[in-house]
Design brief:
336 residues, alpha/beta, 27% helix, 26% strand
Amino acid sequence: MKAVIAHKPSKIETLEVVERADPGEPGQHQIRVRLHANSLNYHDYAVANGAIPTAEGRILMSDAAGVVEAVGPDVTEFAVGDHVVSLFFPYWQDGTPPHGNFSHVPGDGLDGYSREVVVTPANWFTPAPKGWSHAEAATLPCAALTAWRALVVEGEIKAGDSVLILGTGGVAVFALQFAKMMGATAIITSSSDAKLEKAKSLGADHTINYKTETRWGDAVQQWTGGRGVDHVLEIGGPGTLPQSITAARVGGHVSLIGILTGIAGNVPTLMMMAKQIKLQGIIVGSRRHQQDMVRALDANPGLRPVIDRTFPLEKLADAFRYEESATHFGKICVEM
């Protein structure tokens, strides 16, 4: 089978397409999946370009979708022909997170899914939403589940709530779609007016260009009549967190998801304390969360992922270069 691997130290320029042995038939509690698509996340990019060190010869990519080709003894949840989607944290089945690092994430601490066939424990996958393409389903494990957990699981969003979403990448666009699905008001930021227009077409109630409106936290307060928003999806990190706290209402919920502006910085602790903000780090979610999300998507067939562009598996390096350009809106996928 074909696979794309990283060399150590990893660089996008040195990613290699190789032939690997077929993994064979599934054993007890395992399934064999013919993979048809991956989607790119910032985490995958960080591994591919060496920002996150990994093992020599690591097979990349955390997110994948495909078709079950065979099931092992005692597997009852899946049958041959089922469409399935992988888990970002395969060892986090339910409950609280079992670990606070990426040592058990495919494409990082474990071999991932930039390959044509995989044999894994059956509970490393969930059903894909009914009627979705493989590329659409592959967008779910990291980006969609992060947005779902931030808003639905931890944020307990309800109709009438307000949400501030930073950026227009994969997590942000899913957050916009989930917010509207749940009956919330959504504000989204970007440095691109063209991307903001696309966000409006997806239902964004208000948009802010943070290049021209540099004090966008104050702008959110003004737009909400001085109340602030119930939820903030904080994707920028330390460079944007102070304004996100400004934008939040008293008692609001800020989901810290990204570190695009760095890994450390000053936090306005007095304002955060005075506003009684709940600041929570979010890294994807559990299998149970993904199962719940898929059921919600099956109940809302009008919601489909926004896929900006698709590449063949052999051009995974080109897909990462496109991600690096930051011109995409939504998700980037590769197909086998």
